[in-house]
Amino acid sequence: MRLTTGIGASYGTSKSGVGIAAMGVLRPDLMMKCIVPVVMAGIIAIYGLVVSVLISGDLKSPMALYTGFIQLGAGLSVGLAGLSAGFAIGIVGDAGVRGVAQQSRVFVGMILILIFACVSSFSADMHGSRAHRIRALCHREVLGLYGLIVALILNTRASDTPGC
C-alpha cells in the first residue's frame, strides 16, 4: 500500500512539477502560488503511511485468516485509490498550472477541480470527447480520501471475529 500510494504521489508531484517549471518560464511570480498540486500529491502518500502504521500496530504472531484478509483489503483500497488519485492530480495539476500561466483567473477553478470533484465510474469515463476525459480525470482526486476512509473502516473490523 505504501508502494502504490508512493508511486501515485511521486507521479503527481513530478507531473505537476513539470507544469510548474514550464509555467515558471513565463510567469515566475506565480511559482509559489501554483505549488498546491504538489502538496496535494504529497498528501496521498501520507494516507498510505497512516494505514500502514495502523495495520502494523495490529500484527500478532497467530493471526486469523479473516484478519489478514481484512488488512489486505484495507491496504489495497488505500493503495489503489492513492495510485489513481496521484495520477489524476498530476495530470490536472500540470494542465492547471499551465493554464494559470496564461490566465491567472483560472487558479480558483484549478483549486476547485482539485478539491471538490466527485468520483464517477472508471469504465465509462475514458470514452468520448477530450473535455469529457479531462473531467473524468478530475473526478479521481477525492478517490485517495475515499480509499483512506474505506481502509480505516476495514481496519476497525479486523479484530472482529466473523459470525457464520
From TrEMBL:
User: Cellular component terms, GO, for this chain's entry?
Assistant: proton-transporting V-type ATPase, V0 domain; vacuolar membrane
State a single Pfam family of this protein.
ATP-synt_C
Q: Tell where it localizes.
A: Vacuole membrane
Tell me the protein's name.
V-type proton ATPase proteolipid subunit
Which species does the entry assign this protein to?
Sporidiobolus salmonicolor
Signal peptide per UniProt = none
Q: Main role? A: Proton-conducting pore forming subunit of the V0 complex of vacuolar(H+)-ATPase (V-ATPase), a multisubunit enzyme composed of a peripheral complex (V1) that hydrolyzes ATP and a membrane integral complex (V0) that translocates protons. V-ATPase is responsible for acidifying and maintaining the pH of intracellular compartments.
Q: Domain V-ATPase proteolipid subunit C-like spans what residues? A: 5-55, 72-117
Transmembrane helix as UniProt keyword: yes
Q: Which UniProt keywords apply?
A: Hydrogen ion transport, Ion transport, Membrane, Transmembrane, Transmembrane helix, Transport, Vacuole
Query: A Gene Ontology MF term for this entry?
Result: proton-transporting ATPase activity, rotational mechanism
Membrane association type = Multi-pass membrane protein
Q: Which InterPro entries match?
A: ATPase_proteolipid_c-like_dom (IPR002379), ATPase_proteolipid_csu (IPR000245), ATPase_proteolipid_su_C_euk (IPR011555), F/V-ATP_Csub_sf (IPR035921)
Q: How does it assemble?
A: V-ATPase is a heteromultimeric enzyme composed of a peripheral catalytic V1 complex (components A to H) attached to an integral membrane V0 proton pore complex (components: a, c, c', c'', d, e, f and VOA1). The decameric c-ring forms the proton-conducting pore, and is composed of eight proteolipid subunits c, one subunit c' and one subunit c''.
Could you tell me which PANTHER family the record lists for this protein?
V-TYPE PROTON ATPASE PROTEOLIPID SUBUNIT (PTHR10263)
- The reply on keyword DNA damage is no
Q: Hey, which family's this protein in?
A: Belongs to the V-ATPase proteolipid subunit family.
Instruction: Classify the source by domain of life.
Output: Eukaryota
Transmembrane feature ranges: 35-57, 69-92, 104-124, 136-154
